[in-house]
Amino acid sequence: MSVVMQADYDLETAINRIVEQYQGKPTALIMILQDIQTHYRYLPRAALDLVAERMNLPLAQVFGVVTFYRAFSLEPKGRHHLCVCTGTACHVRQSSVILDCLERKLDIHAGETTADGEISFETVNCLGACALGPLVTADEDFHGNMTVARIDKLLKKLREDTAADREAQA
Ligand code: FES
Fold this sequence. Notes:
About 55% of the residues lie in helices and about 10% in strands. By secondary structure, it is of the alpha+beta class. It has a four-stranded mixed sheet, covered by helices on one side. The chain is globular. FE2/S2 (inorganic) cluster binds next to helix 5.
């Protein structure tokens, strides 16, 4: 079996498993898409085709959900994902300085992923914890009262985590 065919087979198996977990119920579409995104760190186009087919839904409906929710991504995301809040409360506490710092250090703009595929980041309007501003999330963790010095430490920690994961898998 060629590498491409193996990849297609793996994708189909993974999608079948996820859809079956929810018995293919149309009401579970968002959860199914969330699980696929967790698995691949984005929603591959071929996966959306398979979801539509397995769930007997029009592809346009699946795309409609994907494009409605900002949390879904059609582009590969980094192994680590950061969100910088640029809502009003965070803005008055200098979130733009944090944003500039991240763009410089990672050499990318919001919405992009580093060339090594390790880190991506985006901006959000409010993360619902305004008292902690300026606020940044890294994967599942909230980092409040963010400063440029703390961004350095956070990026160092994420890269160390990646190195440790790689070592554990070797
Ligand atoms: S404005 Fe940043 S968490 Fe609300």
